[in-house]
Amino acid sequence: MADTFNYRIDHQGSLVRPVELTAARAAGDPEALKEAELQAVKDAVVFQRKLRSTVVTDGDFPREDFRSAILDGVSGFRRTDETDADGLVRWVAESLPKANGPLLADWAARLTELTVIAPKASLPSPAYLAATTFQPGHGPSSARELGEALAEIVRAETELLVSRGVRLIQLNNPLLLGQLATDPADPGALSFEDALAVDALAVRLDERPEGVRIGLAPGPVAPAAVDWSRAEKLYGGIGADRWILPFDQGTPAELALVKALPEDRDFCLGVVDATVAALEDIDTVMARLDAVGEFKDLEDGAVAPSRGFADVASRPLLTTEEQRRKIELVETIARYVWGNEF
Known about the structure:
Elements: H1 19-27, H2 30-50, E1 55-56, H3 68-71, E2 74-83, E3 89-99, H4 105-114, E4 118-124, H5 126-133, H6 143-163, E5 168-172, H7 192-203, E6 213-217, H8 228-237, E7 242-246, H9 252-259, E8 266-272, H10 282-293, E9 301-305, H11 320-338
Parallel strand pairs: 1-4, 4-5, 5-6, 6-7, 7-8, 8-9
Antiparallel strand pairs: 2-3
């Protein structure tokens, strides 16, 4: 399905927050924070344009973490004082959620005003939120019910984003790849089958304008071994156009994830590790991509870092300079593969 809308040089959405923005958030002045966020987003657009990215995001700068567009923008959730190992604050669903207005669309509209590069927006998947916020006896009757309500909110927001000029929308469900292991992880509050059904609702659009892609990132790390039948269920169960897959470790499981992908889907491969500062060897990365080219048309592909650089604002994985070098390497790899045809 090769075409001209594969957005070859991608990144997962979140970027390391600038020190000025971090200071403004710590100061607690709402008006000063709003100004700092807008300036940070403007600077981020310039940064991405200079790096010749084929998509542009707001870096998640206006948000605390990659879930915040939903958790801060809808009713029905309660923030707790608990955090997990990744620094994510735990939230609990106390009633079925209702959107209180646009979630990301206003920021996306600003991106379209700042650059002609295709705007991208990232949202947490409804299945992921349902699996991590459902608690029996606290409102929704089941995680599936909660997930379906969230899916309707995400789908409505996706339609709004597309109407505002966004051309690439990425849903993040960090739990899914763990369910593809030959010995799958505990699905928590939502079964694997229910997770597929919920996220399938979110990516369904009645109309897709030319160039629009709805992508899904099923997790930043491939399992040690992939259950092929479960991988086929994943891709067959969720009708995402684009799959953002880990491809930075060179494991057989990473290759298997790409091989199982149906021919009618795009793929974006996370070819550089966003958790370590050391730069990858280009020849090694190219050898891995050559292996993909033996069974996939690389014209359906794109490249990116393996995950967001700061999915939790307060816990960036690299420094700003290390991040820049990683994204520059992604661009270099893209040019090795596709020349200047982006």
